[in-house]
Amino acid sequence: MPNPISWPASTDETVQNLVRLIQAETVNPPGNELPAILVVKDILEREGFSAPDDFTIVEAAPNRVNLIARLRGDGSQRPLLLSGHVDVVPVERDKWSHDPFGGEIINGEVWGRGALDMKGFLAMYLQTFLQVHRQGLPLKRDLILAAIADEEAGFESGSKFLVKQHRELIDAEYGFTEGGGFTMHLGKTRLYMIQVAEKGICWLRMTARGAPGHGSLPHDDNAVFHLAEAVEKLRRARHLPVHITPTFARMISSASGQIKSPLGALAGLLRSPAVVNLLLRAAKGRSKSLLTALTTNTCTPTALKAGQKINVIPSSAEALLDCRKLPGQSPEDVMREIRAITGDKINLEPIDTSQGTEFSVDTPLYRLLERETRKLDPQGIVVPLMMPGGTDTCNFQDAGITVYGYTPGLLPADFPVVSLGHGHDERLPVSFIESGLPVLWNVVSEWAAGGF
Ligand SMILES: [Zn+2]
User: Fold this and answer.
1) 3-state SS track over 420-438
2) Cα of 17 to ligand 1 centre, how many Å?
3) Rounded to an integer, what distance in angstroms lies between the CA atom of residue 451 and that of residue 70?
4) Burial classification of residue 76, based on how many CB atoms lie within 10 Å of its CB (0-12 exposed, 13-18 middle, 19 or more buried)
5) How many angstroms does the Cα of residue 53 sit away from the middle of ligand 1?
6) pLDDT tens digit sequence for 107-131
7) What pTM was computed for the model?
8) CA 377, CA 427: separation in Å to the nearest integer?
9) For the residues 94-107, what does the mean pLDDT come to?
10) Would you say residue 448 has pLDDT above 80?
């Protein structure tokens, strides 16, 4: 019989591994995942794993490397993939209270770029993987641990590369990555959102054309005015049309079933586009942003460009629009909705697009996640989430893998998880790791060893 797991020791070990991962600088762009991949390799080798039997390192470009490790099951079920990216976004060092790559532990929190996104979660996946190995669990499915590159800047050296060129290494029925399962405090309510869908990118260039001329002789056909008018029309419209996706409908029905007050029944009304439209008019601040993101293709102007010289009227002016489309919507759908507001005078052209993702919640694995997350916080509300942004699940979807954003754990009410993700002073409470590890263990060991 293997020894029972000591959760305090397991938490300590995860924290130490996280510190090492944070100290391995992997800022992307430009992208240099090698130092963090060498940390994972070292941890695996100390555990007795060796390449190429137990793990493989594949290089997409110099220093752009991915590590994939595998624990073998009896093959009666298809693999489970635990995928964590090791690259991090850049930092503005002077805005941080502590060294962003120091990995210091201060007042029970591990500080550093990547603590939340997503080296902390990768360290938890790694710990779970090691524990399955140490316990010698007989597995029905292979358990795959993937430490991957390039999630923060285009996927080319990471998930896209793996799906295109090393599909056999990551082929799985289901996968987990970042994006859900942790506490979100909404007033007194504690929400646990398991990510099952993501919006797609639909970045557009909006161009207005006009007549050029001398700045001293004003005329009405000025491209700057035309563009400004189109942008102002978008502002006045407030949002593009409402669409209720299956994930949003499920999120609402699931929440209304769990909220015990009369509010629960009222929440069900949100499945009606007309009610959402009314609410979008009344809502303010963060709840308005979130409701808009969950129910519409969003359109956010983020850059304006026109003219070269102060006394020359330019013949064109352009705005960059960061649009995010709901799963199932095409770039053409988004452009049609924008034109319905701005009119036909402007030209729209896609710069970059990605499909959204939407995975089924009617699976035994999703039900297991729901059950185990409820045990983590019996008074919390567990719902499926469509993430307004995007990760690399779109590439895994292309490979036929159902991926849930699942990194469970308890977060205190005053912990600003949303703003810390790509922000200054990124950090992760040790108590999160301590509360989340047993949940992850229950899910992974039951799913990989059980008879599902
Ligand atoms: Zn991330």
Assistant:
1) HCCCCCCEEEHHHHHHHHH
2) 18
3) 20
4) exposed
5) 28
6) 999 999 999 999 999 999 999 999 9
7) 0.91
8) 22
9) 98
10) yes
In the block, tokens 């019996």 appear at: 378
Which contiguous run of DSSP H or E holds residue 15? helix 7-23
Q: How far is the CA of 205 from the centre of ligand 1 (A)?
A: 26
Angle 443-446-448 from CA coordinates, rounded to 5°:
100
The domain 199-353: what is its CATH number? 3.30.70.360
Determine the distance separating the centroid of ligand 1 and the alpha carbon of 443, expressed in angstroms.
21
pLDDT tens for residues 139-149?
999 999 999 99
What is the C-alpha separation between 244 and 330, in angstroms, rounded?
15
250: Cα separation from own chain's centroid: 19
Strand-pairing partners, residue 110, are 105, 428
> Measured in Å, how far apart are the chain's first and last C-alpha atoms?
24
d(CA 430, CA 103): 12
- Residues with Cβ within 8 Å of 126's Cβ and at least 6 positions away in sequence, in order, are 14, 17, 40, 43, 84, 145, 147
CATH class, range 7-195+357-449 = alpha beta
Ligand 1 geometric centre to CA of 390 (Å): 9
Q: What percentage of the chain reaches a pLDDT higher than 70? A: 99
Confidence tier at 257 by pLDDT (50, 70, 90): confident
pLDDT at 156 over 70: yes
Domain boundaries, the chain: 7-195+357-449, 199-353
Q: What is the pLDDT of residue 311?
A: 97
285: left (phi over 0), alpha (psi -120 to 50) or beta: left
Would you say 252 and 267 are in contact if contact means Cβ atoms under 8 Å apart?
A: yes
**206: pLDDT strictly greater than 80:** yes
Which pLDDT belongs to residue 229?
97
**What amino acid is encoded at 440 in this protein?**
L
Angstrom distance (rounded) from CA 40 to CA 168: 21
- Ligand 1 center–CA 25 separation, angstroms: 15
Residue 259 has pLDDT above 90, yes or no: no
